[in-house]
């Protein structure tokens, strides 16, 4: 069986931290990071506010991201091998006879407003933190393209609010997590929820 866990949420909410923690305990598990699908810098539109519009779906190659997730669905074992993930077991089985549980974690800040991707996700989580906490955490980060002064208030946070509102209209079936909780309690909450869901399916 194949199962796709989605870890969405605000920038600096702790998505990558939680994903890495889950990866440690889940066997046969691969990951797809949305940040790997940003378009090249020269293809990012500049808004009326003068800032590069990174926090929009248009800044991402979402077709490529969906194709990557579909490649995993098609053959998780081949995906693991071709993405340098150590596969559990040695032989490559026919995908049709491979009955083990395979898990994919899809992690990113804009997962739930793009229906072709949403349709592939089995269990959706969303991490939120308040404005001040988010601004503080973000100010300590170094992105490949550093944030110009004023970007957070002019672009990042307004886009987050816009996308969150759109997400709430599109799909109510999302488990909300408080990103101010400790790393360990976030992990436990998600791990237990996943186990609970898998128990109903296996
Ligand atoms: N539960 C937590 N409590 C406090 N700080 C946390 C927690 N989880 C992560 N952090 C810290 O918050 C920052 C952002 O974490 P992380 O990189 O996991 O977030 P993210 O959501 O993947 O961010 P982005 O996608 O915007 O890069 C890091 O400095 C990390 O150490
Ligand atoms: N990864 C990148 O290329 C990149 C460049 C500029 C900005 N960002 C920020 O990443 C966050 C999502 O993780 C978004 O808030 C982007 O602003 C990423």
TrEMBL record:
Keyword check for Heme: no
Pfam families: AAA_18 (PF13238)
Gene Ontology biological process terms from the UniProt entry: NAD+ metabolic process; pyridine nucleotide biosynthetic process
Alphabetic keyword roster: ATP-binding, Kinase, Magnesium, Metal-binding, Nucleotide-binding, Pyridine nucleotide biosynthesis, Transferase
GO cellular component term of the entry, any: cytosol
Entry annotated with the keyword Transmembrane: no
Pathway the protein takes part in: Cofactor biosynthesis; NAD(+) biosynthesis
GO molecular function, one term: nicotinate riboside kinase activity
Family of the protein in this entry: Belongs to the uridine kinase family. NRK subfamily.
Name of protein: Nicotinamide riboside kinase 2-like
Species the sequence originates in: Petromyzon marinus (Sea lamprey)
Source taxonomy: Eukaryota, Metazoa, Chordata, Craniata, Vertebrata
Protein's gene: LOC116955010
